[in-house]
Write a structure and sequence with these properties.
Strand content: 5-15%
Radius of gyration: 24 Å
Number of helices: 16
Strand order of the largest sheet: 5-4-6-7-3-8-9-10-11
Number of strands: 11
Shape: globular
Structural class: alpha/beta
Helix content: 40-55%
Number of domains: 2
């Protein structure tokens, strides 16, 4: 399998196309045998704007076997390389743990443990176990962590699209956070979720966006509207006016090319033949280590495994999501629908009889309370007639109950704060 590493780097050199590796999220850790060759080509390309000549690489690295005219596609080679990485990780895990367990267990106990571990690896859903931290003795370690946070704070917090909300959250969403966005049906919660996603992407954070209710084209066009403010209805119908059409072509061909190193991966039902499950999310995060935000647009649309009834199965899914987000150090944004009964309870009209915008209360969850308990941040949202409101229902900061008013024009991708707010 090591030959795959030589083949794919040979193809990169021959076609002078290093950035194709970004498309398939190929990184140094995928090159077990020749990581130094990958790093050299990457650094050379960054400095000189092109990959080095094959003779330069061969002269520098005796370990590299240049293979001209590789006929296999990048897609095939990338898949083979990723498969090798996954297999190697599984084997290393078993080798490390199996020796220890062999000494501790005998007979059927060891065999049962091995069977469970193999099934866990198969499901790509291992939950790591940690021994805990010795608070009484790790003062120096905590001081170093403080210094790291001081220097790298901007890389640990993802800003929201709204300045006020970012401030209320103490700098934005922190990596590892479980964030819940709840709203009534057809109020634009998916637009808000997408707005959060593209904002993270534009700030250099990789995004993995599960959007089971939309097609891949619909979700991509929604993102285009939020970033470039193109008429969403016209995008769907292919009826942009001549000027907008030219601007759209420039927008796409200038900003969205293989040279873009920040991933934004969209998965809809077209990519999820067996549904969206914990196993799928775990596997995707293992395959894409540059992801820093996961958006799950429709918690109730997930496949919730178990035999304890749907409510308990959903609770288990929520708990597992919390572990996954923390283990992979990603912000997890889970979008969930509150029931129609909650909207009827909250419905209020002003003196003119117009419907007032009122986000759902924190307790007005739908199928399971676990999403409320597990999330460290809860955003409750409502919208009517161009006015949206986000209620900060739960947060670690002392800003619970703050409410943000938005002006919303979904069709042109404008979702903005209505006015400046005094934070003091």
């Amino acid at each position: 399998m090591s030959m795959i590493e030589h083949q794919i780097l040979s193809k990169v050199i021959e076609e002078n196309n290093f950035y194709i590796l970004n498309k398939y999220n190929i990184k140094e850790q995928d090159f077990y045998n020749i990581p130094e060759v990958y790093s050299f080509i990457k650094d050379y390309n960054k400095e000189h704007g092109q990959v080095p000549d094959f003779r330069t690489v061969v002269a520098r690295f005796e370990s590299f076997n240049y293979m001209p005219e590789v006929v296999d596609s990048f897609g095939y080679l990338a898949k083979a390389l990723k498969n090798a990485t996954a297999k190697r990780g599984a084997v290393q895990l078993l080798q490390k743990e199996a020796g220890k367990k062999y000494e501790e267990m005998q007979g059927i106990d060891f065999i049962n443990w091995m069977a469970n571990e193999i099934n866990s690896i198969k499901d790509m859903a291992n939950a790591d176990s940690y021994s805990g931290e010795m608070y009484s003795t790790n003062g120096r370690e905590r001081w170093q962590a403080y210094q790291d946070n001081k220097e790298k704070r901007t890389f640990k917090f993802i800003p929201t699209p709204y300045e006020s909300l970012t401030k209320w959250l103490g700098g934005g969403f922190e990596l590892g956070d479980y964030v819940l966005l709840q709203a009534y049906t057809n109020r634009g919660k998916s637009w808000i979720g997408s707005h959060i996603g593209v904002t993270a992407y534009l700030h250099g954070f990789g995004v993995l966006h599960y959007s089971p209710e939309l097609s891949k084209i619909q979700q991509m066009q929604r993102n285009d509207t939020l970033i470039g403010h193109f008429n969403n209805v016209s995008l769907k119908l292919g009826k942009l006016d001549e000027q907008s059409e030219a601007e759209y072509e420039t927008f796409l061909t200038t900003h969205f090319t293989e040279a873009n190193e920040t991933p934004y991966i969209i998965k809809t039902m077209e990519h999820l033949p067996n549904g969206l499950s914990i196993d799928v999310i775990e596997a995707d995060l293992q395959a894409n280590p540059d992801i820093k935000m996961v958006i799950i647009d429709g918690f109730n649309l997930m496949s919730h495994k178990g035999k304890d009834g749907n409510r308990n199965n959903m609770s288990n899914t929520s708990r597992q999501l919390r572990q996954i987000f923390g283990r992979h150090e990603v912000v997890g944004l889970v979008i969930h629908q509150t029931p129609t009964s909650a909207e009827k309870e909250n419905k209020e009209d002003d003196e003119t009889g117009a419907r007032m915008v009122k986000p759902p209360e924190i307790h007005q969850y739908s199928e399971t309370i676990a999403v409320i308990q597990d999330a460290c941040t809860i955003l409750s949202y409502d919208h009517h007639d161009g006015v949206g409101k986000i209620l900060l229902s739960k947060t670690r900061t002392p800003n619970v109950g703050k409410e943000l008013t938005l002006h919303c024009d979904y069709n042109y991708g404008y979702i903005k704060e209505a006015s400046a707010i005094d934070y003091i």
